[in-house]
Amino acid sequence: PLTLVQSGGGSVQAGGSLKLSCVVSGAIASTYPMAWFREAPGKERERVASMKWGAYNINYHDSVKGRFTISRDAAKKTLYLQMDNLNPADTAMYFCAAAVYPFATEYDYWGQGTQVTVSS
Fold first, then answer.
1. DSSP 46
2. How many CB atoms sit inside 10 A of residue 41's CB?
3. 39 CB-side CA count, 13 A
4. CA dist., res. 53 & res. 34, Å (int)
5. pLDDT given at position 20
6. Which of 13, 39, 46, 91 is 20 to 30 Å apart from 62, CA to CA?
7. CA–CA distance from 80 to each of 37, 44, 75 (Å)?
8. How far apart are alpha carbons 100 and 18 in whole angstroms?
9. First vs last Cα of the chain: how many Å apart?
10. What's residue 82's pLDDT?
11. CB-based contacts of 65, cutoff 8 Å, min separation 6
12. DSSP helix/strand/coil, 113
């Protein structure tokens, strides 16, 4: 099993940047799907970025393309989400997630969540 522990987040003004981190404990393979999701009040959870742990098959939600960057440091076993040019619509609870099946559509492990608040 994997354990995901998040850090980062906080409050920022529109146009600012934040970086989320997600430290992974447990054995992880390059084929494992990794992702960042967010949940805003009254809205469904949406996947904002995803990749395989091997740093390929990178995808972004249309609303964050060109502003968010998903990456990982294999040596530190840490997944990142760099968020630039933030706007109030990005306000949400953010979660990192991992799956063990390469073609999984559901994620097996989740971080505890971290709040991101963007003020105008």
1. E
2. 7
3. 10
4. 6
5. 98
6. 13
7. 12, 22, 13
8. 28
9. 40
10. 98
11. none
12. coil
For 10-45, the three-class secondary structure string (H helix, E strand, C coil) is EEEECCCCEEEEEEEECCCCCCCEEEEEEECCCCCC
Residues across the chain: 120
Cα–Cα distance, 99 to 90 (Å, whole number): 24
- pLDDT tops 90 at residue 104: no
Sign of the dihedral defined by the CA atoms of residues 82, 46, 107, 25, in that order: positive
Q: What is the band of 105 on the pLDDT scale with cuts at 50, 70, 90?
A: confident
Tell the residue number behind the tokens 């809205």, with chain if given.
43
Starting at the edge strand that comes first in sequence, how are the strands of the sheet with 78-83 ordered? 3-7, 18-25, 78-83, 68-73
Longest CA span, the chain = 41
Q: Nearest-CA neighbor of 92 among 23, 35, 26, 39? A: 39
**Could you give the dihedral angle defined by the CA atoms of residues 30, 24, 85 and 47, in that order, rounded to the nearest 10 degrees?**
70
